[in-house]
Amino acid sequence: MSNENSNLRVGSAGAGLLVGDKLIAGKEFDWSKLYANLSYVWPDGGRTSSFPVIVANLSSDPVLLQRDGETEEVAPGKIDWYTIGGQGQSISEISLFNEDANGNGASKRVVQFYSTMYAEGESINYGYAHNVIVDKNELINDFTSEVYKQFAWIVFIFDN
User: Fold this and answer.
1) Which residues on neighbouring strands pair with residue 17, listed in sequence order?
2) 132: how many CB neighbours lie within 10 A of its CB?
């Protein structure tokens, strides 16, 4: 099927979705265009001695990040690096919700990795990787107030 006027081609050698003469989806899709439209706000060469939380919202909807009693909306296409305390400090609750400031959301695929080690008790390093579908307005993950020796959390959020 080919319809040159609407720029949609299906089942041909030149299959894909075009806007004007720019291919936006198809086997020759230029992933650098997607990358160029992402925003990453951690400065080059930046370092932190605090524990990192990296949220890459690669979905088409905003999500909410709550940390230290503050709520921040992570916009679609935004990759951001947050810091939360450091070794031996009490870390306030951190939560990530699949919704925006108005409570709207949609099912998302969430790929996350976190690694923690409590400062008190057994010094066991807990590391987890999850690849799950999170329903509309569902809590993606939360960490309660604890004192850690080690803490790192990386989250990728995609449209389902």
Assistant:
1) 8, 25
2) 12
- What is the residue extent of each domain of the chain? 2-36, 39-159
Rounded to two decimals, the pTM is: 0.67
Looking at residue 1, its amino acid is M
Smallest CA-to-CA distance from 130 within 96, 158, 94, 155 is with: 155
Cα→Cα distances 102→97, 98, 148, Å: 12, 11, 33
Length of the chain: 160
- The string of pLDDT tens digits covering residues 24-33 is 555 555 556 5
What are the structure tokens assigned to 98, written together?
């699949």
pLDDT digits over 19-60, tens only?
556 655 555 555 565 556 655 555 566 566 678 888 898 888
